[in-house]
UniProtKB/TrEMBL annotation:
Residues 224-251 form a coiled coil. This is choline-phosphate cytidylyltransferase. Pathway: Lipid metabolism; Phospholipid metabolism; phosphatidylcholine biosynthesis; phosphatidylcholine from phosphocholine: step 1/2. Its EC number is 2.7.7.15. Residues 65-193 form the Cytidyltransferase-like domain. Belongs to the cytidylyltransferase family. Pfam families: CTP_transf_like (PF01467).
Length: 306
């Protein structure tokens, strides 16, 4: 009886420790950390990277944490989270997203607001849980509260908030696991493209119905962009007319060829029928079908068909 009760208690503990939301991310957005809580009552034993890579412990997943701003969420972000999620055979990925106030203070203005950035992370397939208003520097209290085993980030020292590397203490504690950055894509790169091609995007959005005020475009620039849009429309019309003209000329040439061919065929037929009006000796044959007014009617019909 005691053995059965002990086994049931272990099973209940394992069930409580199991991440109830782990597979839900495949069919629904990942939950926010402040809407759920880790109900694990078992001691959260400290793991080494070697143990985690062997798939231990067996009664719970390895809780991996990754944080960032995630402005203009792109494939580089997603790839980093994919790496964090697949670092160990059995892992649960928590993603911390810094608020607008904190980001603007330490890094600068963002394109997307914090709500938009939170929602972008919730819909990434690799994310199991999103922590809103994540801290800029990870404290022991924060790590303990969310029962974090390891922190995933690229290995380049992140200088910020008066520190040469905000992850230095995490690395010293043996809790840091590196991911690889994706070259050629970053939020800064995307913003650079927009700034570089600003006129193109401003003109496009004016054409789509946005006002100059919404785009923060001056009166003069608005008129310039609208004039350029009209010029582009005119160019497109001219191009279409040219293409249609070429198509018309091609059709006329084809039709002319068909008409000439039909005329040659009808001409041969006319000559042959005309010669039949005469006998072998060239004399006129009044008994033939094509005679007098009948012959004229046949000729008129042939001409109209041609």
């Amino acid at each position: 009886m005691v053995g059965c009760q002990k086994r049931r208690t272990e099973e209940e503990t394992q069930d409580i420790c199991a991440p109830k939301f782990q597979r839900k991310t495949l069919i629904a957005p990942a939950p926010f950390a402040d809407e759920i809580s880790c109900q694990c009552q078992a001691p959260h034993e400290k793991l080494t990277i070697t143990q985690a890579r062997l798939g231990t412990p067996v009664d719970r997943p390895v809780r991996v944490y990754a944080d960032g701003i995630f402005d203009l969420f792109h494939s580089g972000h997603a790839r980093a989270l994919m790496q964090a999620k697949t670092l160990f055979p059995n892992s649960y990925l928590l993603v911390g997203v810094c608020s607008d106030d904190l980001t603007h203070k330490f890094k600068g203005f963002t394109v997307m607001n914090e709500t938009e950035r939170y929602e972008a992370l919730r819909h990434c397939r690799y994310v199991d849980e999103v922590i809103r208003d994540a801290p800029w520097t990870l404290t022991p209290e924060f790590l303990e509260k969310h029962k974090i085993d390891f922190v995933a980030h690229d290995d380049i020292p992140y200088s910020s908030a008066g520190s040469d590397d905000v992850y230095k203490h995490i690395k010293e504690a043996g809790m840091f696991v590196p991911t690889q950055r994706t070259e050629g894509i970053s939020t800064s790169d995307i913003i650079t493209r927009i700034v570089r091609d600003y006129d193109v995007y401003a003109r496009r959005n004016l054409q789509r119905g946005y006002t100059a005020k919404e785009l923060n475009v001056s009166f003069i620039n608005e008129k310039k962009y609208r004039f350029q849009n009209q010029v582009d429309k005119m160019k497109e019309k001219v191009k279409n007319v040219e293409e249609k003209s070429k198509e018309f000329v091609n059709k006329v040439e084809e039709k002319s060829h068909d008409l000439i061919q039909k005329w040659e065929e009808k001409s041969r037929e006319f000559i042959g029928n005309f010669l039949e009006l005469f006998g072998p000796d060239g004399a006129w044959c009044p008994d033939r079908t094509l005679y007098g007014s009948n012959w004229l009617l046949w000729f008129r019909g042939f001409w109209n068909k041609a």
